[in-house]
Model the fold of this input.
Amino acid sequence: MTAERVNPPALSPPTGFSHAVVATGSRLVFLAGQTALDADGKIVGGTLPEQFARALANLLTALRAAGGTPAHLARVTVYAKDVADYRAHARELGAVWRKSAGRDYPAMAVVQVVRLWDEEALVELDGFAVLDDAPAGPADREA
Done:
């Protein structure tokens, strides 16, 4: 699988995302929305950065279980209850992203929502990834 990040000079320089990602490969992984739920189904973290870190970790756990890595991410959507709060923590959230997922950013969007399924959740992430042709073996799918 290759993922080419495309950032045309005619658009404003991207910060923490790519304008487009051209992916080649035949396996798509669609990742369900992940919040800051722990293994017991409880929201952890009282701040947006804490919840973002856990939600991203959960998203990456699901991706790894499907045989992928952060480099395979082609698209991520962030659903935030408060975009102003998201913007206020942008540097911290960017550091969390780089530490967990690296610097090859997928195409991304941030959408403000009234509420999320988990009422205590401040943020939710979903997305999709493009993996190599060869299917992951059972060991790669272990959570």
Remarks:
- The first strand starts at residue 2 and ends at 6.
- The two ends are 22 Å apart (CA to CA).
- The longest helix spans residues 48-65.
- Confidence is low (pLDDT under 50) at residues 138-143.
